[in-house]
Amino acid sequence: MKSHFTFSKEQRNGIFLLILLIIILQGVYFFVVPLTAGNDVKELSVNREELKKFQKEIDSLKQVELEARQPKIYPFNPNYITDYKGASLGMSNEEIDRLHAFRKQDKWVNSTEEFQQVTKISDSLLNAISPYFKFPDWVTNPKPKANVMVYNNTPKTFAQKQDLNTATAKQLQKVNGVGAYYSERIVKFRNTFSGGFIADVQLQDVYGLTPEVIEKITEQFTVKTPRTVKKININEAAIEDLVTIQHIDYDLAHDMVEQRQLRDGYKSLDELKKVNGFPVNKFEIIKLYLSIE
């Protein structure tokens, strides 16, 4: 070990010189370099105007980014605002409920002013969302009213109506919705019965006639000379009697008789609707041929 720590005079001088050099360099690093760096900082000048412009540009970019992140609002009809849509627009629950209550009355909002009257939203919110309101064209751009002839809509009395059993196809064509095709079909179906219709309700059996067209026909025509029919007592009728009636087949007649036995007789014709498979939509026609005693 002694041989490792024994140095010559020249070696000791070199070690001493190396230690001194290290100390000097450390001193330069800790004292001289910070002073020089401080002088450089002091000499740095800042252009305030350029800094403001740069900061303004950054702020504008931030604003653009924030606006881009916000959900876009597309034009919409305010009559169909849902709970979610109203909340996203900034409406309160009470304001949304007022609109929904108004719509439940089958009423429509047709202007910005009416929307505020119904919902009672603030002016500031209205100004923010009203530019996106889109009402139907017939509301925003109503067409000028043409000169329309006013017709007397008073329903005709029984005496004023024409007899449906004697009406010709040409007369029936005057009814809106009844052309040559349907008028001929009505007359042809009526003539399948000896004596014509028993009641207006038999128009339902004319294939292709809608309830709306039938209503228009009965506004102008009605059965004044009904066909005479001998009604069948439902509490005594046999299956063979029931199958002679329109819309009653053998299976239905069998079920009607069976139900009659279980009920110990029908108390009213309405009880027939409870028979399995009974055509309820044809009840008014079927009961033209039945009686209850």
Automatic annotation (TrEMBL):
Keywords: DNA-binding
Single GO MF annotation: DNA binding
UniProt keyword Kinase present: no
InterPro entries attached to this UniProt entry: Endo/Exo/Phosphatase_dom_1, RuvA_2-like
Entries under Gene3D superfamilies matching the protein: Photosystem II 12 kDa extrinsic protein
Top-rank lineage group of the source organism: Bacteria
Protein name per the record: ComEA family DNA-binding protein
